[in-house]
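Render this sequence as a predicted structure.
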Amino acid sequence: MKIPSILFALTLSFIFSGCSTIPDDIVAVEEFDITKYAGTWYEIARMDSRFEKGLVDVTATYTMLDDGKIEVLNRGLDTLKNEWSDIVGKARLANDEGSAMLEVSFFGPFYAGYNVVEIADNYSYALVCGASKDYLWILARDAKLAPSIKEALISRAKELGFETDQLVMVPHAANAE
């Protein structure tokens, strides 16, 4: 019977639409320019999750589309399978107030919080969290980030209440000596 499936989907949509996209005590960057954020970012560090386990050389590319939507391409080398893993999704601003609160979706109508909480003036590095403190990323425009900047971002994340000892440093072939 299709009715239980439809009710289940509607219930999930209702539950997810009421969820906050950012942890209660975290504030996203204000005066955020999504067009400057577009482009490729290298994952420098992350709080590991089941969907990224074993991935190295991870990048995220944000492309502004003609219709105003944002395409997201996440790519990484799966070390267990020794093959590239790609997933394409979509993103949108969570509000029209100019803050760096976004929502991303890789699975149909279900969106998750994606929040830029620190960013360089020139958009060369960023500290990003999800809707909970279980998700954190340090991103940079280059595969290598100056150690002083990386440490400053880790310190900032710790100040914000993230368990920074859970961060995994992400190797990139571009950094191989």
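Summary. The first strand starts at residue 39 and ends at 47. The radius of gyration is 17 Å.
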